Amino acid sequence: xxxxxxxxxxxxPVKAADLILKNGTIYTxxxxxxxxxxxxxxxxxxxxxGSNEEVxxxxxxxxxxxxxxxxxxxxxxxxxHTHPLEANNPAxxxxxxxxxxxxxxxLGKIKRCARRNKSAEWVTGWGYxxxxxxxxxxxxxxxxxxxxxxxxxxxxxFTSHSMWVNSKALELAKITADTPNPPGGIIVKDKKTGKxxxxxxxxxxxxxxxxxxxxxxxLLDQAYDGLKIGxxxxxxxxxxxxxxxxxxxxxxxxxxxxxxxxxxxxxxRVVMSLWGYPQFGDEQISTLKAMYSNxxxxxxxATQIKIYADGITGVxxxxxxxxxxxxxxxxxGNRGLNYFxxxxxxxxxxxxxxxxxxxxxxxxxxxxxxEALNAVEAAAKVNKSKHDRRxxxxxxxxxxxxxxxxxxxxxxxxxxxxxGDWTNIANYKRDSGYLLGSRANFAIPxxxxxxxxxxxxxxxxxxxxxxxxxxxxxxxxxxxxxxxPDIGTVIEAYTINGAYALRQEKTVGSLEVGKFADLVVxxxxxxxxxxxxxxxxxxxxxxxxxxxxxxxxxxRGAQ
Length: 559
Hints:
Elements: E1 2-5, E2 8-11, E3 19-22, E4 25-27, E5 35-36, E6 38-42, E7 45-50, H1 52-55, E8 64-67, E9 72-75, E10 77-82, H2 84-87, E11 95-96, H3 107-116, E12 123-128, H4 131-134, H5 140-147, E13 153-157, E14 162-165, H6 167-172, E15 185-189, E16 196-202, H7 203-212, H8 217-236, E17 239-247, H9 253-262, E18 269-275, H10 284-291, E19 300-308, H11 342-352, E20 358-363, H12 366-383, E21 392-395, H13 404-409, E22 413-416, H14 425-436, H15 446-451, E23 456-458, H16 469-478, H17 487-494, H18 496-501, E24 519-522, E25 539-544, E26 547-551
Parallel strand pairs: 3-8, 4-9, 10-17, 11-12, 12-13, 17-18, 18-19, 19-20, 20-21, 21-22, 22-23
Antiparallel strand pairs: 1-2, 3-6, 4-5, 6-7, 9-24, 13-14, 14-16, 15-16, 24-25, 25-26
Helix pairs in contact: 3-5, 8-9, 11-12, 16-17
């Protein structure tokens, strides 16, 4: 519209668009303009959001116009805790085991798998539950030796928080009866002989995987091929921004991501959460500082540090204030373990937040949550108000209610995963009630921490749970207790809140003029359908900075 002062008339210049979307239901996640019919994009950025009539002023010769035919549009989804590289890396596991079946009954499957992979240096697998192995009458190492006698073998438990290895692997790692437990891990030993029995808990298992996945050109190529598969899955699920929640830099994961950026195959904005190794000395702090990368305009950044405060409830390693009701016999004191103690977390946060790093802290037990919050608070007392802190606790399964208001007080983001069926409170009680008793009744306090004023994000932890964000959206609304109040709140958790967690809320996370056109077109309107239908949503079209990164085969409107 012209602005007139006296005899002078100044016209606001209208930007001609490269792309116009019209006749849509555009949910912007912008409270000043929640809904719109049309949008115009120029050079990857949004230049107009509004009505069908007004968008016409951005039309020029050559502008691509897409008639959305009423379809629902929303900002690109942020998954701030996912593992697309690890989940699709063929080197990680070649033998798929069956959860819920005793491992002694799966030796034939492992033997066949070993024969199929004759040239592999290691025989690898994944998928059993810890209960599938602890009740065996023969030592686990002896069972795996029977299946794979000639090479090192490592089988990852379903959650990745324990590993099952054979004698060749123990020999290669130089693990004996005299080997002490590493930080954050347990080498389980036979109570009679004192020898390692083949079960490695938490970081002891991670260290064995480090040995197996020591980077070579071949392994890095395999990881890259897997990552490209992961990127396609992200785009097909409408995910345009992620945090890779565990970048093992000694395995070369950061180099794999850098290759993807260099070869222009990235279809999402990526923040690498660099792994803090419990077994390394604090000299790794200087290494991590040198790896910080936050260059404007790049799709790939290294701005987060991932550390584990504790393990998981399933193997009795989540850090609890009170003992577990059942003891697997792995961990002294029966209150879980720490990968990083509160004091060490404090040191790392204090030193690394000054560089610009945000911390992404795995916390599952109530003691783990409490100690992580204490560490953030202690670091803030040292560094005071010099830094815009956006540290994040992820999982947050079991908590002390006294800690709920501290999330807001300390500006700590609470990141939850509710896409997996196991996160349903009835299933959680079924699976963990024997370990936790009544504490399992209050697991994953999504509603309580939201109502305490915390900023909430929702994520997948793929491939522990499905990568499909619409399953998580539905579950966040339909949990019988500890649910979020409405679909708008849920969408915010997957968009603008995720953008805030990744420090990019000024450029993406909502559909506003000046922001990048990261968006997704869906086959149903999330604002109108019943909550129990959300999981059936299909992504029709995904754009990153206005460029197509995915189109469903059935969707012709974007052609």
